[in-house]
């Protein structure tokens, strides 16, 4: 059997990763796995032994140890029975990257990284708006500052790493662009 094909989707919090992923699923038949959603699901499971730990990391905008995140991703991949995945919001730091390579390097093929670019002011505005209804414990200005800080310090170097491997496809998800306009560009990356 062929190895599953993976596209990583990275970008600042609020850059529109999840929104574009939904559209990619509809058009191109990928299975969307949001690392953040998988972690929130695990956190909400009363039987989980790592629920409290995940809660603390998310609230502080810190990155959960890769054993947990990558374990959840692999479990979801296997459970889906599918072979084309969008992995949204992962890998976010060196620990994530090396953990992925160790655990999944032989089992999956990373096709490319879809990198959604968006200025911080635009992201901030979107997240604070989303925070009015999302119920997310990290969609508030304090957590958001920490998330941006983590993104700049830890995630941007990962994008740079894949860029050096010529695996990054960058799209403009920023100022004044509607999700549909952004998707017109995203489509080109998947043809
Ligand atoms: N998170 C993590 N590892 C991941 C993905 C997410 O630790 O691989 C945690 C991290 O604390 C992050 C939070 O989950 O700030 C929310 O991530 P999500 O991708 O849902 O939101 P985004 O910041 O991209 O809007
Ligand atoms: Mg998201």
TrEMBL record:
Main location: cytoplasm
Requisite cofactors: Mg(2+)
Cofactor note: Binds 1 Mg(2+) ion per monomer.
UniProt subcellular location: Cytoplasm; Nucleus
Region (NMPbind), start-end ranges: 34-64
Enzyme Commission number(s) from the entry: 2.7.4.14
Keyword Acetylation appears in the UniProt entry: no
Domain of life: Eukaryota
Binding of a ribonucleoside 5'-phosphate, residues: 40, 62-64, 89-92, 136, 147
Stretches the record annotates as LID: 129-139
Residues given in the record as CMP binding sites: 96
PROSITE patterns noted in UniProt: ADENYLATE_KINASE
Keyword Transferase among record annotations: yes
Keywords in alphabetical order: ATP-binding, Cytoplasm, Kinase, Nucleotide-binding, Nucleus, Pyrimidine biosynthesis, Transferase
Reaction equations catalysed: CMP + ATP = CDP + ADP; dCMP + ATP = dCDP + ADP; UMP + ATP = UDP + ADP
Binding site for ATP: 14-19, 130, 177
Protein's job: Catalyzes the phosphorylation of pyrimidine nucleoside monophosphates at the expense of ATP. Plays an important role in de novo pyrimidine nucleotide biosynthesis. Has preference for UMP and CMP as phosphate acceptors.
Known partners and oligomeric status: Monomer.
Domain notes for this protein: Consists of three domains, a large central CORE domain and two small peripheral domains, NMPbind and LID, which undergo movements during catalysis. The LID domain closes over the site of phosphoryl transfer upon ATP binding. Assembling and dissambling the active center during each catalytic cycle provides an effective means to prevent ATP hydrolysis.
Family label: Belongs to the adenylate kinase family. UMP-CMP kinase subfamily.
Stated name of the protein: UMP-CMP kinase
